[in-house]
């Protein structure tokens, strides 16, 4: 038994070690020396790295030194900086994003100038299909072709092509985010909600602006372009807010998310419960699930905070993406608090066009299910993400039915609105959402094994780190949530003296640095 | 006095009770000061820790510093015997057992101290010996463990460069490691990181002082803190099952076989060993070299040619060489080269009787003369 463990762990470690090399080979197949040099300076498109901080500092200084009246020049500067930010990772793909953005710009201009409904419709379809085509080619090609290959094989037919290895497919980072931004822009112009942007640099900035390019928030043209045209004035208050958000995000990422990743993914010598659930005890798996729930929240909301903070320091206000989702009292509320920019996008561009909740109960449920399955598929090209979306859709439907039932039972409704009832609802929602995270990964088999072992009484390995740090982190996050929910945090930062705030920022940054684990983990949503 | 009566007088909270909203102008002023104060505070704290860690090695290198704290009360009480070595020494050299045995047999005390540090070799030992001399802890007898694999001459420099990073060194020690084959750019880069961004670069050293259990074992620096008063890293268990020993031996084989089978003991590591012996000679420190116990299987990983090369090297070094490879039976190891508690006791007992008591008697005569 012990031998089997050793060999299996060795194999997993070996696979993990080899995978980045394969990506690296693919990435540098057709790069130029200048961009190679750029890659060395900024090896990862992550905000909490020294390379990025230096890049940000250079761009910010150049940006604010530029006279205020040269707003377009400032916009060009940000466009060029954003292109370099992407090109440092992959120049060819940076070019691809720029070209599709250019095409979107021209499509929208053409659509806006045309008065013929048929032509406008054709153009909007062309724009949407182009964006979805790029998304499907890079993100879903492997999944669909491999599924087709398997299906044909089941019927004894030869597919005449070999299966694709997902590790060999290079997916441009942020593709799901910027294609959705481009689609929403095209649809809004088509529906005449907004006019097509006349200035190319401003439109390029809308898509390429580096703070939201990698992993959102998904911005809307109506919100962003107005800001891009406004002349920006240096404002210490905005700098403070930006810095505060950036520090908060860095703290969430380094001190919490990356730390929790040790509980879920393990260390170099011991792959964690999310990678090898078959070796872990039932208790360890439940704790790992809690750690994963915390990790994914702090990872993504931390990233969003850093993105919003960075944008603030250039005078741009991006939409809030998270609002303490684990304090939601039901799944519907959860989706109003979790990844807000995506959920509102799905609501506006999928759910409502499908008919929303205007039709019968059955039609509404169907629309919910379709929307959530597409939401799941948006996260990753795999059956597990589809199941994840399906589960959330089912929970939303169940909640709708339950709410309708409660309306006929005032006693039950009154109980649910007491603090005990609310706490119970928050707890149940948290458990349901956390259980769905088991499927939030590409390996179906591992998810099933994990669920199976969670509901049995299995013995096995304990977590890679002592549980104590997990519990302390959980309590700390809970207390921070309560502090913010009760409004104390707002009071503190508005009224505290500058010296206390300054010391607080320094201590926050230092704590994040001290608690950072040995090797930085990539952002989970970076892969979407 | 006024300052002490109101130590936080500079902190003036804006009263919330009036419920008057804070004006934008006031918030802007506060914002400017807060941002500047934040940067200043961060720079000050970083500079403070960077400078402190440079002069106080316990922060940078707890492996060394924590043991030094345990060694200091022993200084001047009796002849000092220090064993510098690797994790094998760390688990094997049972100082208290040795002190008791020597006292019982000779009636005169010695101070025995275990300076076994995981993944160390001649270059680390040279640095540590120099530090000990500077810190006033010059040993009367130095027992130096030779871990043959650490003497390997590789094309890319000494093996120790994988473990002794720039953040563990002071600025004065950089030329020494560079002379012995470390990459100057890499060492300097890491040293600079530890000096100018110390909260990040020294985070495991710092965190290990407060909450060791929060750090994966590969990143822990608290090895020396958990040792006994003589520096012995007490093994957690008294026995191991044959299955556990087999797995341990597989791991050891993966780690050592390739290096040991074709070992060329020369290059930077051997040069550092020679320099260390030269320092001892200059300072009048008695030295004995020792190869720690190994299991029967482990010993087969050295080819006959490698054994000949090692013997030639030991002869050339001109120091007494204690070959303790076969002192302990196989069942007293965890993995073929790290000793369990009974193994450590057996090894220490024999070391005390065969080596230390004769030296102690001779030393007493020399002092009396």
List its salient traits.
heterodimer, A: 0% strand, globular, disordered N terminus, B: 369 residues, alpha/beta, 53% helix
Task: Please outline the helices and strands.
The complex is a heterodimer of chains A (528) and B (369).
Chain A: H1 2-27, H2 33-41, H3 50-65, H4 71-87, H5 91-113, H6 117-154, H7 175-190, H8 200-208, H9 210-213, H10 221-229, H11 236-265, H12 282-313, H13 331-337, H14 340-354, H15 361-379, H16 383-407, H17 410-416, H18 419-437, H19 444-454, H20 467-485, H21 488-495, H22 498-515
Helix pairs in contact in A: 3-4, 4-5, 4-8, 5-6, 5-7, 5-8, 6-7, 8-10, 11-12, 11-22, 12-18, 14-15, 15-16, 16-18
Chain B: H1 2-5, H2 24-55, H3 57-60, H4 62-71, E1 80-85, H5 87-92, H6 95-106, E2 111-116, H7 122-134, E3 141-145, H8 174-179, H9 184-196, H10 198-201, H11 203-210, H12 242-261, H13 268-283, E4 286-291, H14 296-300, H15 304-317, E5 320-323, H16 341-368
Parallel strand pairs in B: 1-2, 1-3, 3-4, 4-5
Walkthrough of the structure:
The complex is a heterodimer of chains A (528) and B (369). Chain A is an all-alpha fold and 528 residues long. Among the domains of chain A are: 31-234, no CATH class; 323-454. Chain A is built from 22 helices and no strands. Chain A is globular, with a radius of gyration of 24 Å. Chain A starts with a helix and ends in a 13-residue tail after the last helix. Residues 1-30 of chain A have low confidence and may be disordered. Chain B is α/β, with parallel strands linked by helices. Chain B has a domain at 63-160 and 216-368: SGNH hydrolase (Rossmann fold). Chain B has helices at 2-5, 24-55, 57-60, 62-71, 87-92, 95-106, 122-134, 174-179, 184-196, 198-201, 203-210, 242-261, 268-283, 296-300, 304-317, 341-368, and strands spanning 80-85, 111-116, 141-145, 286-291, 320-323. Chain B has a five-stranded parallel beta sheet with strand order 2-1-3-4-5. In chain B, helix 7 packs parallel to helix 13 (268-283). At the A-B interface, helix 1, helix 11, helix 21 and helix 22 of A face helix 2, helix 11 and helix 12 of B.
């Amino acid at each position: 038994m012990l031998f089997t463990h050793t060999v299996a762990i060795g194999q997993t470690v070996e696979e993990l070690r080899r995978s980045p090399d394969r990506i690296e080979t693919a990435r540098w197949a057709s790069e130029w020396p200048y961009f190679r040099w750029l890659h060395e300076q900024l090896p990862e498109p992550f905000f909490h790295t020294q390379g990025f901080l230096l890049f940000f500092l250079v761009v910010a200084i150049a940006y604010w030194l530029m006279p205020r009246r040269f707003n377009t020049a400032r916009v060009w500067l940000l466009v060029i900086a954003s292109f370099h930010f992407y090109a440092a990772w992959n120049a060819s793909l940076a070019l691809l994003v720029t070209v599709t953005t250019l095409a979107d710009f021209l499509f929208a201009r053409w659509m806006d100038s045309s008065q013929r409904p048929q032509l406008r419709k054709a153009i909007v379809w062309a724009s949407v299909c182009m964006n979805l085509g790029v998304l499907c080619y890079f993100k879903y090609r492997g999944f669909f072709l491999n599924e087709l290959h398997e299906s044909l094989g089941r019927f004894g037919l030869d597919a005449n092509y070999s299966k694709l290895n997902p590790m060999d497919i290079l997916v441009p980072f942020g593709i799901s985010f910027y294609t959705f931004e481009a689609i929403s822009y095209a649809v809004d112009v088509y529906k005449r909600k907004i006019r097509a942007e006349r200035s190319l640099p401003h439109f390029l900035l809308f898509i390429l602006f580096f703070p939201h390019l990698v992993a959102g928030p998904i911005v809307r043209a109506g919100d962003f372009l107005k800001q891009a045209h406004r002349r920006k004035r240096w404002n210490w208050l905005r700098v403070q807010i930006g810095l505060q958000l950036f520090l908060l995000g860095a703290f969430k990422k380094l001190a919490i998310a990356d730390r929790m990743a040790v509980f879920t993914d393990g260390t170099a010598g011991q792959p964690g419960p999310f990678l090898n659930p078959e070796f872990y005890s039932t208790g360890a798996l439940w704790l790992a699930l809690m750690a994963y729930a915390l990790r994914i929240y702090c990872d993504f909301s931390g990233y969003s905070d850093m993105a919003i903070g960075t944008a603030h320091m250039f005078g741009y206000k991006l939409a809030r993406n998270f609002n303490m989702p684990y304090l939601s009292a039901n799944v519907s509320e959860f989706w109003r608090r979790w990844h807000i920019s995506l959920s509102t996008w799905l609501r506006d561009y999928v759910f409502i066009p499908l008919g929303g909740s205007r039709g019968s109960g059955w039609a509404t449920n169907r629309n919910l299910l379709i929307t959530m399955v597409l939401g799941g598929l948006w996260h990753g090209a795999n059956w597990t993400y589809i199941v994840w979306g399906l589960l959330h859709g089912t929970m939303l439907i169940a909640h709708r039915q339950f709410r309708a039932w409660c309306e006929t039972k005032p006693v039950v409704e009154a109980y649910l609105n007491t603090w005990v009832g609310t706490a119970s609802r928050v707890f149940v929602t948290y458990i349901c959402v956390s259980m769905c995270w088991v499927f939030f990964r590409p390996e179906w088999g591992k998810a099933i094994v994990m669920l199976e072992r969670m509901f049995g009484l299995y013995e096995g390995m304990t977590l890679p780190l002592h549980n104590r740090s997990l519990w302390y982190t959980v309590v700390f996050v809970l207390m921070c949530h309560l502090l913010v929910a009760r409004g104390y945090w707002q009071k503190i930062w508005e009224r505290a003296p500058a010296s206390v705030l300054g010391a607080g920022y320094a201590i926050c940054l230092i704590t994040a640095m001290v608690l950072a684990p040995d090797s930085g983990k990539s952002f989970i949503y970076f892969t979407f | 006095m006024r300052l002490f009566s109101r130590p936080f007088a500079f902190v003036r909270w804006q009263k919330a009770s009036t419920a008057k909203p804070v004006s934008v102008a006031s918030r802007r002023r506060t914002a400017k000061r807060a941002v500047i104060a934040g940067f200043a505070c961060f720079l000050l704290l970083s500079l403070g820790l960077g400078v402190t860690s440079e002069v106080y090695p316990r922060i940078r290198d707890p492996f060394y510093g924590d043991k030094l704290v345990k060694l200091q009360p022993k200084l001047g009480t009796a002849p000092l015997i220090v064993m510098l070595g690797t994790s094998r020494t760390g688990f094997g050299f049972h100082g208290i057992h040795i002190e008791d045995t020597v006292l019982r047999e000779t009636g005169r005390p010695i101070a025995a101290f275990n300076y076994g540090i995981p993944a160390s070799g001649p270059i680390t030992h040279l640095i540590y010996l120099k530090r000990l001399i500077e810190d006033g802890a010059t040993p009367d007898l130095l027992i130096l463990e030779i871990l043959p694999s650490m003497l390997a001459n590789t094309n890319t420099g000494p093996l120790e460069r994988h473990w002794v990073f720039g953040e563990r060194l002071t600025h004065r020690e950089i030329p020494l490691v560079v002379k012995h084959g470390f990459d100057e750019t890499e060492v300097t880069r890491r040293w600079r990181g530890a000096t100018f961004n110390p909260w990040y670069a020294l985070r495991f050293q710092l965190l290990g002082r407060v909450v060791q259990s929060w750090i994966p074992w590969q990143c822990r620096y608290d090895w020396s803190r958990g040792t006994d008063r003589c520096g012995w890293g007490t093994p957690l268990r008294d026995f191991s099952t044959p299955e556990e020993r087999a797995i341990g031996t597989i791991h050891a084989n993966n780690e050592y076989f390739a290096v040991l089978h074709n070992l060329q003991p020369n290059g930077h590591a051997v040069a550092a060993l020679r320099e260390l012996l030269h320092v001892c000679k200059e300072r009048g420190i008695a030295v004995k070299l020792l190869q720690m116990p190994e299991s029967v299987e482990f010993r087969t990983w050295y080819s006959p040619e490698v054994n000949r090369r090692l013997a030639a090297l030991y002869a050339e070094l001109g120091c007494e060489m204690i070959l303790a490879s076969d002192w302990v039976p196989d069942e007293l190891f965890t993995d073929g080269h790290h000793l369990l508690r009974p193994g450590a006791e057996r090894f220490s007992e024999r070391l005390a009787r065969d080596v230390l008591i004769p030296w102690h008697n001779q030393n007493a005569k020399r002092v009396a003369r």
